[in-house]
């Protein structure tokens, strides 16, 4: 190759570079619409978190963000697994709950194939972090948690409660309370908190543990009564409801947090863009008003803090599941 050939090759090189597509992580994100998987039916905590966040995220990122309720049951495991298997391009996200770490442990407890591992996910941002509350119909005979416990001790296994599925957040909260109170309740699993709440309102079950935002509209309408709070302190939306720790059940502490996740192999530039977008979303006046009206206060954490929180909370919940053992 003579000097003129070398010069021609050098001249052509920038054009060849321009024709060659850049890696997806370097392109302007997002390149297409985003799907936000919610592994539960509408009406529960994850759905409550997802919808205002999706609307605000659309405005920030300039692409549609479609909430996809994967109501496949298994306490949310089906939807979580679907998100874990998705292409790590930032266009399939997961808005899920604290049961994320519990469900793989439940699979191991029952010697089942593990649907997914927490290590397959990258925390992006925490959205909500509410204590679970024990609620019963307003027509129920129990006015206090003490009356509920006394009745349960007289009738072991006869008081029914609904949950979002075995070892989901609502199930673990109720079993944690039942273990501490030394009572036996009858678990009736549903495909999500929304259907479980519908069953409670319809008289199919007699109690439920759920997030404040899920319960508040029904309490305000006089349909439900809240007896106890699984958090470490009382909350503004239910200031008169005592914590179970106040009532002497010192080891009852359960939070139903909701957070946004992507796949662990998500390219760093896309993860950074998502984190920046969520920082804007979680200070949006519309988002703050929506959550405030629902009785769930924003509990935003950026990825590093959220990752630490998930690690600590997951360890505590896994220990609780092992203590509860195999229950149906």
TrEMBL record:
Q: Which Gene3D superfamilies match?
A: Bordetella uptake gene, domain 1, Periplasmic binding protein-like II
Superkingdom of origin organism: Bacteria
Pfam families given in the database record? TctC
The record's section on PANTHER family has: BLR1237 PROTEIN (PTHR42928:SF5), TRICARBOXYLATE-BINDING PROTEIN (PTHR42928)
What protein family is recorded?
Belongs to the UPF0065 (bug) family.
Name this protein carries in UniProt: Tripartite tricarboxylate transporter substrate binding protein
